[in-house]
Amino acid sequence: MKNVTDSFVSLGYWPSAGSFGFNTDILATNPINLSVVLGVLIFFGKGVLSDLLDNRKQRILNTIRNSEELRGGAIEQLEKARARLRKVEMEADQYRVNGYSEIERQKLNLINSTSKALEQSENSKNETIYFEQQKAINQVRQRVFQQALQRALGTLNSCLNNELHLRTISANIGMFEAMKEITD
């Protein structure tokens, strides 16, 4: 009986293990907080980011298909130009005595104009692809930045007192005004 009583008495000497409070040890809490925030960002942002990237990928693929069609048209024009070139060469054999230099000049002009058209088409395709890629990258960056900023502000709002909150808002407004001046 004495052992049972001693066990209840000894429970009174133990500190309460189930109490709730704030852990002020920065080195212990920051990795936990960061891992939770990163986990939430990855869990909730993955679908949005994946959808955004899939949509952008489809647009880029459509642009590439359109560019390939344009390229196909340019190749077709090139084939027509080559056929015309062959025709001009046959005529050149007939008219060699009368005007060989004139025919050569027409041939060079035809080749140059066709190659310029093909080159312009290729450049247009490359510029369109580059533009769409940059646009997609910028949109993804903006989306991720906005989501991170919203979550960070939510976390800050729940942790700051009024005075610190007002100072943080003032500092952020100053940063945004400076960014606006830079972009203007």
In short:
The chain is mostly helical. The chain is built from 4 helices and no strands.
Average pLDDT value? Answer: 80
Order of helices and strands: HHHH
Total domains, how many? 1
* Number of discrete helical segments: 4
Shape: rod-shaped
Helix content: over 70%
C-alpha-based Rg, rounded:
36 Å
Unreliable segments of 5+ consecutive residues: 7-16
- Count all strands and give the number: 0
> What structural class should be given to the helix and strand makeup?
mainly alpha
Question: How does this structure look, described?
Answer:
This protein is an all-alpha fold and 184 residues long. It has one domain. Helices cover 90% and strands 0% of the residues. The protein contains four helices and no strands. Helix 2 runs antiparallel to helix 3. About 5% of the residues have low confidence. It is found in: Membrane; Plastid, Chloroplast thylakoid membrane. This is ATP synthase subunit b, chloroplastic. One of its GO terms (molecular function) is proton-transporting ATP synthase activity, rotational mechanism. Pfam families: ATP-synt_B. It is a single-pass membrane protein.
